[in-house]
Design a protein that fits this description.
heterodimer; A: mainly alpha; 13 helices; B: alpha/beta; six-stranded mixed sheet; four-stranded antiparallel sheet; 14 strands
């Protein structure tokens, strides 16, 4: 605390017009993404969980539940399971939800909002950061999968297509998470709400074939967006899958997954950016 | 020059009126304190001026730009710190400032330089590389203030900048605010601490139930409600008798403190001289240990002006 001379300096640069504005928004998005990734780097617990989660999931579902689950056609359950676990990563909206609720509850969002920062770019940047994080998770899960007998059966091109589909879906799902985080507004509330997200992945074909479910439950599970994604992933990777059984999204899993992602983006990007830019309080 | 101007601002949250016709004018380079009880609308006023909350009615402009129609220009001229703006616990102090610098488009190198400069200037250089969640409350608050200075904004909003801080940390924040004001920054701060307003504010605006109930320099406000007479008696039993002696000059109810045998009476400025007072007390046969005529404290101004409307509290 010495002199004040330095403080009386650079005022904020005025926002440029036209293309310059777009460049600013891009830069803001990159800054927002960098911020999220820097935070993760400082958080060894989160990194540990990311590294550890695939192992735990493969062990619990692959060996504990898997020992009692029959896949139609007598295929290896773990080869059925691993693509499903990719989908649990893609559909995991919790990190985005909790991070946004935390920023919102602690006033970080308010600080950004009081600055000449593009209000659309910040959530976009955070979603992009989640994709980077997701990519790492997919790679780790694949490594775990390989160790327990899962393989890419239809070649690299379709495997990359599967990865692209998973990442597109995750990007879309992140917006649902960020919107929920903004609506809930507090880290604690978001933490409590996270239990409600769990059934969404359970009520699907991720862990078990839906054929054995009661008809009404099966209808819900078959139309669950994550079921289409799991079916599409299994299809592209050439892993054991369930017989389609009539539900349209499972008959056309790739189209259905893309459509679901498009719907989520179309609904939640505007909801989320509007809420970010202009909260009701 | 008026740099912050608000006319007839209104804003309700459901059934609660947080602002009901707030008028405000702050001159460039002044430190203005918004003073008021909980729920008076201080925070809402700041949020409207900082473009975080849209007013239901009325107009406001900051640095010549309307907060509703030109929010981007307003945001380029302001800094916000306090209750509703925060630093990131999961980043280091330095990273916090770099992120803000990059959001302000300083460029990578300049953002880094500026962060270092500010940390040095505010005595945070040593802690700068540690995660903020390991910092003390006072240091965080200082970082919060610093975070609003990454580009030196002409207008600074501080929402309860020292609430919950120890006296030493408060003094540090005050010193920083004084230095900023000396450098030409206009500061609008909210506070519940009257000594804070007395210490650092050039102007005080007392608001209650969403509107201004008094404003002026601290001295003007004190003079406006007259002077106070304090009488400390030998015997607490004489309090009532003393009150009766002073009653002809009193402009409000006397306040008796039996534990200290003290009586405080508000009177109009210059209504009575000290010798006259002592003579009257003697004539009534009352033995006083101490008699004084003084200016009211800002506390008394505050209580006098806000006592009438004790409205419902607003958390927002």
């Amino acid at each position: 605390m010495t002199s004040v001379t330095e403080t009386v300096s650079t005022p904020a640069r005025p926002e440029p017009a036209g293309l310059g504005r777009l460049r600013w928004a891009l830069a803001d998005g990159l800054t927002a993404a960098g911020r999220v990734l820097t935070k993760l780097r400082h958080d060894p617990t989160a990194i540990g969980l990311t590294l550890g989660a695939p192992v735990v999931m493969v062990l619990i579902f692959g060996y504990i539940f898997g020992s009692a689950i029959q896949v139609p056609g007598g295929a290896n359950y773990r080869a059925f399971l691993v693509p499903g676990l990719f989908v649990t990563i893609a559909a995991n909206i919790l990190p985005a939800m909790i991070a946004m609720a935390r920023d919102s509850g602690r006033g970080v969002v308010d600080r950004f909002r009081s600055m000449p920062v593009s209000r659309t770019a910040v959530p976009f940047g955070q979603a992009a950061a989640t994709s980077v994080y997701g990519l790492i998770s997919f790679v780790l899960m694949a490594a775990c999968g390989r160790a327990v007998g899962w393989r890419i059966e239809r070649g690299a091109v379709l495997a990359v297509a599967a990865l692209g589909l998973l990442m597109a879906f995750q990007f879309a799902a992140t917006w649902v998470g960020m919107w929920l985080g903004l609506v809930l507004g507090k880290e604690e509330t978001a933490g409590q709400a996270s239990i409600l997200v769990f059934p969404v992945t359970m009520l699907s074909n991720i862990f078990v074939p839906t054929a054995g479910m009661p008809a009404w439950l099966r209808a819900i599970a078959d139309w669950n967006p994550v079921s289409a994604l799991a079916a599409a992933t299994r299809h592209l990777l050439g892993n054991p899958t369930t017989p389609p059984g009539g539900a349209w999204p499972l008959e056309h899993p790739i189209v259905a997954s893309l459509a679901w992602a498009a719907v989520l983006l179309a609904v939640f990007v505007p909801l989320c950016t509007r809420r970010y830019a202009r909260p009701p309080h | 020059m008026t740099i912050i101007e608000a006319t007839g601002l209104t804003r309700s949250f459901g059934a609660v009126r947080a602002l009901s016709g707030l008028d405000l004018a702050v001159q460039q380079g002044r430190v203005c304190a918004l003073l008021g009880p909980n729920g008076a609308g201080k925070t809402t006023a700041i949020r409207v001026l900082a473009t975080l909350t849209r007013p239901d009615g009325g107009r406001a402009s900051v640095a010549g730009h309307d907060v509703v129609t030109e929010p981007r220009q307003v945001r380029a001229s302001i800094g916000l710190a306090g209750q509703h703006a925060a630093v990131d616990d999961d980043l280091t102090g330095r990273e916090n400032l770099i992120v803000l610098g990059r959001f302000l488009h300083l460029g990578r190198r300049a953002a880094r330089q500026r962060a270092g400069q500010l940390l040095d200037e505010f005595g945070l250089a040593e802690a700068g590389g540690r995660l903020v969640k390991t910092w003390s409350g006072g240091m965080r608050r200082r970082l919060d203030l610093v975070a609003s200075l990454v580009v030196a904004p002409p207008v600074l909003f501080l929402d309860e900048p020292t609430t919950g801080l120890d006296p030493r940390s408060r003094a540090e924040i005050w010193a920083a605010v004084r230095r900023l004001a000396a450098g030409g920054t206009t500061v609008l701060l909210t506070t519940q601490y009257l000594d804070e307003a007395d210490q650092i504010a050039d102007d005080v605006v007392i608001i209650d139930a969403g509107r201004v109930v008094a404003q002026g320099t601290p001295d003007e406000l004190k003079d406006a409600i007259g002077t106070r007479i304090d009488v400390v008696l030998e015997d607490a039993a004489d309090l009532a008798a003393a009150a009766a002696v002073l009653a002809p000059w009193a402009t409000g109810p006397a306040e008796a403190d039996p534990d200290r045998s003290r009586l405080t009476v508000p009177v109009a400025a210059g209504a009575v001289t000290l010798p006259e007072l002592v003579r009257q007390l003697e004539a009534a046969g009352l033995r006083a240990r101490d008699v004084s005529v003084r200016r009211p404290t800002l506390d008394e101004v505050f209580l006098d002006r806000t006592a009438r409307a004790a409205g419902p509290e607003v958390a927002a």
